[in-house]
Amino acid sequence: MHLHEYQAKALLHLYGVTVPEAEVIDSAAQVVDATQRLGGKSWVVKAQIHAGGRGKAGAVKHVASVNEAQAMAQQLIGRSLLTAQTGPAGNPVQRLLIERPLIIQRELYVSLLVDRERQRVLIMASSHGGMDIEAVASQTPEKIFNVFIDPVVGLQAYQCRQLAYALSLAEQIKSFSAILQGLYRLFIDKDLRLLEINPLVLTPTGLLAADAKIDCDDNGLYRHADLVALRDRSQEDSKEAAADEHGLNYVSLDGDIACMVNGAGLAMATMDIIKLYGGAPANFLDVGGGTTAAKVAEAFKIIVADAKVKAILVNIFGGIVRCDLIAQGIIDAVKQVSVRVPVVVRLEGTNALAGRELLAHSGVAIIAATDLADAAQKAVQARGGR
Q: Which of 109, 184, 250, 348 is catalytic?
């Protein structure tokens, strides 16, 4: 789950990390009051979406007057913003963050993430912060410094000093160390997947986070009602959001053959074999090992909401779940949802024979497959492939 920049900065502030003075608005009519509260004669206006590349898309600007800020608000709020990191439809802009401008002496980069191979929280830092940190990582990786944190003892003072010296912050060791400790506490306390400050800037008054990005671990959200309350569904794919509400793992893709599978590994294999036989998957959809007929029905509703889908391949392995129950769920779902594209079904495992019998005598136009290769070929043919 992603947070907006203004939400991330609010969390940083709670953990002792300095952030710019700011106001959040959701209409152009609020610009005058917001700028008056901030004071000054110029401001930085930032569109709030769950994607990077806003600056290059013209949605982060230094404005020199209230009129200019209002014009930007009218231009952005209520419209979709397309950046290098959004989909082709862009992301809707519903809020703007207005901040006091900063006198920036240096731009740095700091992030915390989980290194799964080492099973450690990793701090990455670079003296080359700003919008093009990806270029630094690919072209000059030696300019990025890594520190791995032992989960037993946590972030140590000597590690903070190591990074401070690596970033030429000898005069700011104390404040920089306090920032790193605050970031680490936030990362652990809130079960985060990513915490990125780009850039962390040095100003005449000290270090502060000029921008911030936070990704929360969905698996830990049950412990953080405060984070769940910050979720912005408007920034998510509508089908993915609906799937999440029903405990389904769904990711939209660019093809036209929808997949419904129980098990992530089986889903990956299903997508691969569709490609092998000349098709392209329209989604990754894992209904889970212990799926139910009700879940299958919800999965069909999500699939048929995708206008580009020309065929559906259902690949179920009955281990925990019985194939006859899933077969009945498929029959009910096809009738309930009024599926108008070909449906290919492959059942294997517990009560697979009984499940196939149900499908064969259901009166519903379902194409039965004997194995996964047969299912993939029939799905490609059904949607008009070779």
A: 109
Whether 165 sits among the annotated catalytic residues: the reply is: no
Specify whether the CB–CB gap between 309 and 281 falls below 8 A.
no
Output the CA–CA distances (angstroms, integers) from residue 220 to 78, 192, 215, 217, in the order listed.
32, 8, 12, 6
Output 342 or 137, whichever has higher pLDDT: 342
Q: Of 23, 107, 196, 298, which is the active-site residue?
A: 196
> Which one has a higher pLDDT value, 131 or 334?
334
Other C-beta atoms lying within 10 Å of the C-beta of residue 224: 17
Residue 1 Cα distances to 95, 213, 215, 244, 320, angstroms: 18, 11, 6, 11, 29
Tell me: pLDDT of 377 over 70.
yes
Q: How much is the average pLDDT of 318-336? A: 83
Rounded CA-CA distance 76/57 in Å is: 11
Task: Report d(CA 167, CA 303) in Å as an integer.
Answer: 49
Contact, 96 vs 64, CB < 8 A?
A: no
Distances in Å between the Cα of 235 and the Cα atoms of 49, 94, 238, 239, 382 are 7, 10, 9, 12, 34
Residue 195: other Cβ atoms inside 10 A = 25
Match 């917001």 to its residue by tokens: 34
Other Cβ atoms less than 10 A from the Cβ of 116: the count is: 8
Give the three-state DSSP class for 295. Answer: helix
Contact yes or no for 326/318 (Cβ under 8 A):
yes
What's the confidence (pLDDT) of residue 386?
Answer: 46
Whole-Å CA distances, 216 to 10, 120, 240, 246: 15, 17, 16, 19
d(CA 258, CA 375): 12
How large is the average pLDDT for residues 30-59?
93
Beta-carbon count within 10 A of 250 CB: 22
Q: What pLDDT is attached to residue 246? A: 73
196: annotated active-site residue: yes
Q: What is the DSSP letter of 361?
A: T
Cβ contacts of 102 within 8 Å, gap of 6 or more: 20, 44, 201, 203, 208, 210
Q: Look at the alpha carbons of 59, 65, 69, 72 in this order and tell me if their dihedral is positive or negative.
A: negative
Is 70 exceeded by the pLDDT of residue 289? no
Average per-residue pLDDT for the chain: 90
User: pLDDT, tens digit, for every residue of 57-73?
Assistant: 899 999 999 999 999 99
